[in-house]
Amino acid sequence: MIWTAETGTKLFNYCERGVDPAFWAEPLNALSNAGFLVVSLAAFLNWRRQPAATRGGSELALIALVLVIGIGSFLFHTFATRWAMLADTVPIGIFMLAYFAYALRRLIGLDIWPVLAGLVLFVTALAAAGNVKCGGVACLNGSVGYLPAFAAIAGTGEYLRRARHPSAVPLLIAAGLFAISLTFRTLDRAVCPLTLMGATWHTGTHALWHALNAVVLYLLLRATANYRAVNYSRHI
């Protein structure tokens, strides 16, 4: 549902907002993005505590992207405009591509050409999943678009488990939590009438998607720290 006014176009995509165009119409959805800020800070402090030789620029860039994801999502759940939607989705897309490339190159150890081929396949899968429709609308409340990311996390984690790599555990836990968070994202509209708080405020379940995803991203960053630690120990 879209509401148009002189100030711009509002997007009513979530249960909590309903049809309210106000800035604070999604307080839980907006404030739950603090989890991404906390995660990025915790990961950065952990990065700073590591020996200088283990402080990779790639890992720091991924940490920074998590911070940008939190800011962009906050903007979308407050302004609820098309530009704010881009501020939300573009950093997420960049992080998915950057992390998948990192996983293929650093964690699995592929050469550059297989990494590029993997990225092409991943982008193709994301585009195809994002265009899947059910009755003219995005399937599973748009959550189908994240299934390639889930498959990438789970597949990488399983590969590393078989290789007895220390980054396998955080990746596999992240995959399990991501499946749960996708469920909450999917159910946001379906269970909306059941999440009434007070006289008229429906909370939905999208804030739980944010909360769990913050943990998922922390685990993904933890996997990169494990890689750096192991790689450093092999060279001392």
Outline:
With 236 residues, the protein is mainly alpha-helical.
Kindly report how far apart the N and C termini lie. 59 Å
The side-by-side strand order for the widest beta sheet comes to: 1-2
Number of helices: 8
Query: Which consecutive residue ranges, at least 5 long each, have pLDDT under 50?
Result: 1-7
Q: In what range is the share of β-strand residues? A: 5-15%
Question: What's the story with the biggest beta sheet?
Answer: 2 strands, antiparallel
What structural category characterises the helix and strand content?
mainly alpha
Helix content: 55-70%
Q: What overall geometry do the principal axes of the alpha carbons give?
A: globular
Structure write-up:
By secondary structure, the protein is mainly alpha-helical. 65% of the residues lie in helices and 7% in strands. The chain has a two-stranded antiparallel sheet with strand order 1-2. The termini are far apart.
List key phrases describing it.
two-stranded antiparallel ribbon, globular, mainly alpha, 8 helices, about 240 residues, disordered N terminus
